[in-house]
Input
Amino acid sequence: MTLNEIFSIIDEDLKLVEDSIHHNIQNKIELISSIGSHIFGSGGKRLRPALLLLACKLFDYKGPERIYLSSAIEYIHTATLLHDDVVDNSVLRRGKQSANSIWGNEASVLVGDFLFAKAFILIVGSKNIRVLNILSNATGNLAEGEIFELVKTGDLQTSINDYFEIIKNKTGVLFSAACEIAAVLADAPHNLLNSIKSYGDKIGVAFQLIDDALDYASTDVELGKKIGIDIQEGKVTLPLIAALTNANSDSLYSNVKEIFYKDSIAEDDINFLKNFVLENRGVEDTIKQAHNFISQAKEELSIFHDSPAKTSLLLLADFILKRRF
Amino acid sequence: MTLNEIFSIIDEDLKLVEDSIHHNIQNKIELISSIGSHIFGSGGKRLRPALLLLACKLFDYKGPERIYLSSAIEYIHTATLLHDDVVDNSVLRRGKQSANSIWGNEASVLVGDFLFAKAFILIVGSKNIRVLNILSNATGNLAEGEIFELVKTGDLQTSINDYFEIIKNKTGVLFSAACEIAAVLADAPHNLLNSIKSYGDKIGVAFQLIDDALDYASTDVELGKKIGIDIQEGKVTLPLIAALTNANSDSLYSNVKEIFYKDSIAEDDINFLKNFVLENRGVEDTIKQAHNFISQAKEELSIFHDSPAKTSLLLLADFILKRRF
Output
């Protein structure tokens, strides 16, 4: 099943969100509109808005906040992508040139700030203190996750706990916030709020696990971005951590370490590390973990009555395991 | 009169703000605490918190929000400094090494984001929608000002109107927000709110005018940052705009243009441009404008009864004209 099919029940809402995203980025300063059109026209999947909208459907909530809060969450997500690209010096993003490689780091930093501010303005527009609490804390956790990831860059001793703390903050938090906001808007009872929030968190973590696995297992064309990029950036993700643990060999660890700390890593080195990770079940274990999180996420939905929204959320969970993008 | 003397009536409050600033930046991630200590220990003047606190004194408002909202405003200001330094590639900030030159651009971008998020969390803590509106719009304007400045970089045709739009957004807005928040917290009548808000805006613009004048008129040691830096960064500020207008000479314009667009500008070039600006009354006119804004700002205060707070605000306005930092 395609993502479009899974999202068909929120098709109208997603169009409204898309309009809202493009409308609110318009600005008399042309650079803002240009960068905005570029990044929001690059075929993002709008996973976070879709989650918020599906969760609203689940609670049968139809208020207007669901549209502009979805845009706000997408703005926050996009702002972190813009800032990430500066941090990572990325050249490709979703198969297209990244904003920083066209307009420069300066513009990416400042337009990212502009998106954060616009999100802030939209969120304040809800006048809902609970929503404001969720999203202000989410942006705080997001920043902490990114900084912790930066601190752990190039640290081959990064533990599994460190890794999960990073991905929970940098990816899980915004997925879970999208779900929690729907519950808050609908004034859902506490147990339902906790379940949908936990569902969001878990599929977010699974999403990141698959992302990190694909960096070792996919090809450039499929991924729409360069692969082996985590290695080149010195990012120690679960596939590598698991492979090192599974290999349990001092000499292999030394080999990996030697390559990992080279000033410039050649194609051969990347292939060596990719093979090392694949042979030592790093990708396999990571995907296994993703499966665990997805089945836990689906379990969280058992508390809800059957409905088209619930079906879509279950299908979305499965889709995350199958994605090749 | 020194700034300390002018701020003596809010001495206790400023200490509480300082504690709050340092307390809220503490984090289990050491990099955040380190960068935080570095930037908040570099002797910032805390002008924006002081403005908020003085305005609260003026309205006799003593609620606890004045402390943490002052910290929030300082966080927003500092986040823009961190991001500015990445944009400008600054090496010095307040006479000390800038954060990006010690920890790298990546950390400056992400810790800036963290400060924005912390500010957002503190502001939400006030549960005051008017305050939230003021500060969310202020951060939006701030980002717009920074982006417009970036767009106008290297544009010798930058108009006086463009220049004032930039400095009003990048500096005036946060000064005026600090003042307006005090009026909102104190539930002040509309006319008083407008006056104090306008006072803040005007001293903010004057502050930036003096800043831009000092870049041509001061020496490295006095300024605590390198001078002639606006030229090197291609920033077209009022001293240059005014000098070009006053000179009214095609051949001088061509000379300036030739130097301005050099790939690397030598010491001699900077001295030529400095002299050109000084001789053609660029600095003089800029300082004259600053005087205009300051007298307008003081005029805004005439609506208030005499009080120690009003006296301090009047002295602060004068101080801005005399500053050499």
In short: The radius of gyration of chain B is 20 Å. Chain B touches chain A through 42 residues (CB under 8 Å).
